[in-house]
Amino acid sequence: MGRVVRAGPFSFVGGCDGHRDLESAGIVADLAGNAKAQCENAYGRLERSLSEAGSSASAVVRLDHVTSSQDWLPVRQAVRERMFGKPAPLASTGVAARMSGINMLTTFAIACADQEMKEVLVPGPRYGMANIAAAVLGGPLVFLSGIRGVLDPRNGQAVAEETPEAFAAQTRVVYGTIEAILADCGLTPNSILGIDSWLRDSARAAEDEAICREVLGPVQYASTRIALPLSARGETEVTVLAAAPGVEKNVYDDHAGPIVTSAAGFQFVGECRGIDGPPAPANLTLIANPRAQLSRALGVLDTVLRNCGSDLSKTVRLELYLRDIYFADAAQAMLRETFGEDGPAVAIIGADLESLVEVKLNAIAI
Questions:
Q1: C-alpha 102: how far from its chain's center?
Q2: Least enclosed by CB within 10 Å: which of 38, 109, 229, 324?
């Protein structure tokens, strides 16, 4: 965890945990409940990993966080401000998730190998984000920060919360805001390579997709929709990765697996599940079997990558979502067996997955 993979113009950093000592990486029991110290550890390990790889925190274009709660968000923002500045010149996401033991924060990142390739395209304050950028150019790609819909930044109006209508209302604001930010970048929704949607309720995934297509149009993209506790306010948080102006986007969709998009020499793979729908009799062994489901999800990933001229060995970033976060150690062992010591940068996240699904993953490959 926390290792850096260099591929093309980017460095990918795996998950950096807050409850681990910066020097030894061992779990420190005394860090229980200490948000500031855990943020210092997680960001410190991220910064050190990048420095050892010949990069720096100032080169980060996308910074992702999963946390035990959003209640101590100001603490995290204060530590981030000291390290990255305010507003930080990067796209950022932050969602509450199922965490392991005393861990309060896992952060992972994408950085430009050459800091000169990085440019803030849309300042965050324009869309109500005082601490981060709304959109950042990283060479051939554009990274958008996570968008929530409790307040419409285009007109300052509050949106319904905690009502039956709240999900649809907030989700329309989210995708409308994304469309506006893309337009500010000189882009249309057709440039979208991937959308990650984190939802309070996994049963709303189809509704989220329908509203996305209603607002953004019939765009093909690598899709991941994951239910998480989220915490704080809001029904959903959505982040987007897009091809920069002038960069060609390709789509691979054989209808037998997740959509894969490609641009600038990278393949972006949507969610690969450990099980799909009611299992056939031959697949009953997948039920309540995270090990078997992880093996299947990796097999799906390998198949779709081969279909577009890549393969599993060329994976550079892997997000692994587990119903049982305590399967993480066994999952890491399986990943080492699959990829060897030169595998991708990995982030492991505890999630509220759909019925029967123990494992989901998505990936970036070359």
A1: 22
A2: 324
Residue range(s) defining the domain that contains residue 230: 146-247
Query: Is residue 87 reached through a cis peptide bond, with omega within 30 degrees of 0 on the bond before it?
Result: yes
In this structure, are 6 and 134 located in the same domain?
A: yes
Q: Does the pTM of the predicted model rise above 0.90?
A: yes
What is the per-residue pLDDT across 37-53, written as a single tens digit (0 to 9) for each?
999 999 999 999 999 99
Helix, strand, coil distribution of the chain in percent, nearest 5: 35, 30, 35
Residue with tokens 């989210």: 174
Q: What does the DSSP assignment read for 255-321?
A: SSS--EEEETTEEEEEEEES--SSPPGGGGGGTT-HHHHHHHHHHHHHHHHHHTT--GGGEEEEEEE
DSSP 237-252: EEEEEEEPTT---EEE
Q: Residue 295 falls within a domain, yes or no?
A: yes
Cα–Cα distance between 67 and 325 in angstroms, integer? Answer: 13
Distance CA 301, CA 272 (A): 6
pLDDT tens track for 74-85: 999 999 999 999
Q: Helical H runs in 193-287?
A: 205-216
43: its two tokens: 């960001």
Answer yes or no: is 212 within a domain. yes
Number of domains in the chain: 3
Q: Are 327 and 350 in contact (CB under 8 A)?
A: no
Residue range 277-304: mean pLDDT, rounded: 89
Query: Residues 275, 180: one domain?
Result: no
Is residue 256 included in any domain, yes or no?
Answer: no
Distance set, CA 127 to CA 237, 243, 262 (Å):
14, 21, 28
Q: Cα–Cα distances in Å, from 185 out to 133, 139, 220, 351?
A: 12, 14, 19, 32
